[in-house]
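Now for our target.
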Amino acid sequence: MNTKNFLAADRGTADYGWLKPNYYFSFAQYHNPSKIHFGTLRVLNDDFIMGGGMFPPHPHDNMEIVTIPLTGAVEHRDNTGGHGIIKAGDIQIMSAGSGIQHSEANASKTEPLTLFQIWVFPKVRNINPRYDQRTFDVEGRKNKWQVVVSPRTEDDALWINQDARFSLTNVTAGNSIEYTNAFEGNGVFLVVINGSVEVNGITLQKRDAIGVSETESFMINASEDTELLAIEVPMR
């Protein structure tokens, strides 16, 4: 088993006034040659957006983009007619495919918004752009993995154009949970949203992450009530 730490304190940061992002990987003006990507996971931004803040219309292509609001709600619009309000508990996915233009705004003029935005390189290039979102029952992830993004129909999740899987869990203090790969040879980027866990003898706190590869499963031990996101991606 191979591991690489991505500690919260070592992330790139910026302050645009209305937007305060934290970058796990090189992005925008933050460049770290040792943190370009993890397999096909290219971007993981932990964003704080002030009330009324907005990313104006901008283009993307050939990227699978997943948005996970943590607090507040984000409003999405794109040039294919896609539109939605995505709240905490919801998951959004957009396949940029052959090209799409979209905007994202804090749906509130006064309350802040926090979210993860995640980019994964696609399996097939230049597909037709697409957009989807779904609300997931938080109770369905207590001490077990709730799959929210996957190409496998049996996972009953939002579809992604990649052999990748996103799963969430809320593990109560003192419990352990095992992660087992859906796809042979994949790696897992595990993020502690809140709480504290131990993985392979390594302690991870709030917003710390670890990249795990060269194994098909691993154990996670929670020292306190903990919320986790597992992003499983091909490593090639």
Remarks:
- The chain has a mean pLDDT of 97.
- The chain has two domains: 10-128, 138-233.
- The chain has no helices and 21 strands.
- The longest strand covers residues 41-49.
